[in-house]
Write a structure and sequence with these properties.
The protein contains 13 helices and 14 strands. By secondary structure, the chain is an alpha+beta fold. It has two domains: 254 residues, no CATH class; 68 residues.
Length: 409
């Protein structure tokens, strides 16, 4: 066995997207089995104080949002923070608005508790899942060309791997090595950063899943899927680098649309795998998150960023259940331009928040308003042509953010 198999992030999918989702959105350890190492009550008032503070951050960055959302009711606040499981040390410090969410939190929730991986029972379980039984070896289960790619990689990098390791585990080790080679380390990852801080500050730590559940997610992938992913990372490490850097860039810029596109590609190419790794898990988390909303506490939930975006992401699932979910910091929503176009149409341009639901409303007298267009924004600006304006003697417009947080009591 190798003496230096790093903890690594991992998520399932198809092709390059599979490798990247594994690398950025789910945690599983890659470790040697023998040597592993109150602000109760007025939570809404806390939330509005937070938004006031957020406006100060906004003044410094007029068009930037984070992978941070907030859900409130009359007695509780839940922050949802999208994590990248490995970052470069230079990516710190994290945005002040993210740190403020952690400071306010009375409890912090992660996908798993790291300590679980160090229990003797879980180490034994991992070993059984990671290794073939008896004298079976990986060579017996891989195509000859895939096995040769593996041997070439080991010769080039000096990485020692047991022949008894199964492909999913070899993939985990190699993607962890490649992530580390590019300067991304687990200790700088968002979830590990706040996990360590929560421990140091004695904040209660909760988990959405167990270590065994996540191990099974990876270990129970079909053998052909395991080999495909292993082969692809061995054959095209540069694609792994490019894709990883694109995902991190989307996360750092708070660009939901870009990351959503990446997740959607995985869904389209392998719906069954996407369902297993994203849809089902996201749906399982919703009752637990709603349970935190039933507590008179401030809760920070930290999960892989890919779980928060898309139509089956946690943010949208909560919205469909009637919760107001707002991405932070809250950027201005305003009319940028309006002009009467040739033929009498009115052309409108609005500044919006990426990934939010909006309604463009019109009125002839500023008294009665009706919605003329609804949309989900895919960028920070949107354009709309009102083709019914010609029939109106005069018309006023307003843009309403349907996801905006309710007014405080």
């Amino acid at each position: 066995m190798s003496s230096s198999r790093p903890s690594l992030p991992s998520e399932g999918g198809e092709g390059v997207l599979a490798r990247l989702r594994r690398a950025m959105f789910i945690k599983v350890p890659s470790v040697a089995p023998t040597s592993l190492s109150r602000v109760i009550g007025l939570s809404r008032s806390v939330f509005w104080t937070f938004l006031l503070l957020a406006s100060q951050v906004l003044a410094q960055s007029a068009s930037h949002q984070e992978f941070l959302w907030v859900v409130t009711n009359r007695s509780s606040t839940v922050y949802l923070l999208g994590s990248i499981h490995a970052l470069r040390p230079a990516d710190h410090p994290l945005a002040e608005i993210i740190n403020r969410a952690f400071v306010q939190a009375e409890q912090v929730v992660f996908e798993i508790k790291y300590e679980e991986f160090n229990s003797p029972l879980n180490l034994s379980y991992l070993s059984a899942k990671a290794n073939y039984p008896g004298n079976e070896t990986i060579r017996q289960h891989l195509a000859a060309d895939t096995y040769q790619l593996l041997k070439n990689y080991q010769a080039e990098t000096g990485l020692t791997l047991s022949e008894r390791f199964r492909p999913w585990y070899v993939f985990a080790v190699i993607s962890g090595e490649e992530t580390k080679r590019l300067g991304y380390v687990e200790s700088s990852g968002v979830d590990r950063h706040f996990y360590d801080r929560a421990n140091a500050e004695a904040k209660p730590i909760l988990a959405l899943e167990t270590a065994r559940f996540q191990i099974d997610l990876l270990a129970e992938a079909p053998p052909e899927q395991q080999e495909m992913e292993l082969r692809e990372i061995l054959a095209d490490r540069d694609a792994f680098r490019v894709g990883l850097e694109e995902i991190v860039a989307s996360w750092k810029s708070g660009h939901v649309a870009n990351l959503t596109e990446t997740i959607n590609k995985g869904r389209n190419s392998n719906p069954e795998y996407h369902k297993k790794f994203f849809t089902d898990r996201n749906q399982n988390w919703i009752p637990k998150i709603e349970g935190f909303l039933d507590q008179a506490k401030v809760t920070l939930v930290v999960v892989g960023a890919g779980h928060l975006v898309g139509k089956d992401g946690v943010v949208n699932l909560l919205r469909t259940r009637g919760h107001a979910v707002t991405q932070l910091p809250m950027l201005p929503t305003r009319l940028l331009t309006t002009k009467r176009a040739f033929g009498g149409n009115t052309e409108l341009s609005f500044e919006v928040i990426t990934g939010h639901n909006y309604s463009i409303e019109a009125s002839p007298d500023l008294l009665g308003w009706s919605s003329i267009h609804r949309f989900v924004s895919s960028d920070t600006t949107t354009n709309f042509t009102d083709s019914s304006a010609l029939a109106q003697a005069q018309r006023f417009y307003r843009l309403r953010n349907l996801d905006a947080a309710p007014s405080p009591p």
